[in-house]
Amino acid sequence: MPGFLLRTVLLLAVESGAALLLRDPGTPWIPVLLAVFVAGSAVPHGTDAEFAARFLVALTAVGVAKVGAAVWEGHGAVAPAGLGALLVLQTAALLRLSRRGRARGRRRPPPRRGRR
Q1: Which residues contact 109 (CB under 8 A, 6 or more apart)?
Q2: Average pLDDT in the 88-105 region?
Q3: Of 51, 50, 64, 55, the residue nearest 8 (C-alpha)
């Protein structure tokens, strides 16, 4: 469980920093969101995450940063709901990846068959 908490806190810190940068209209958004995407895809390191799982976590990280900037600017009531949904999706994906990596390490190897 400490790996899951570390991954979640690290990703939330990156997303919060990006949201703070993106709320200023003069900030170049491509490098900021690219950095969030790279950090999001690197967070599942140490798990058995394949490309699709890393891509999902990275895309939700970009979505959280973008919607988080909109929430900080105060754009309607839909933005906080979208931010909450993205955070739940991201946390569930990270939890699944963290638990799956640990569970695979505990499995017994399949029984060996004799030579024929």
Answers
A1: none
A2: 73
A3: 64
- Residue 70's identity, in one-letter code, is A
Provide the token pair at 95. Answer: 């939890």
Q: How far is residue 29's CA from residue 49's CA, in Å, rounded to a whole number? A: 28
Query: Cα(93)–Cα(112) distance, rounded to whole angstroms?
Result: 34
pLDDT in tens, 19-45: 888 888 888 888 999 999 888 888 877
Integer-rounded Cα radius of gyration of the chain: 18
The owner of tokens 């638990």 is 99
CA atoms within 13 A on the CB side of 70: 16
Helices (H) and strands (E) in the chain, counts: 4, 0
**51 vs 11, 32, 58, CA distance in Å?**
18, 22, 10
CB count within 10 Å of CB 112 equals 6
CB distance 22 to 70 below 8 Å: no
Please check whether residue 14 is in contact with residue 39, taking contact to mean a CB–CB distance below 8 angstroms: yes
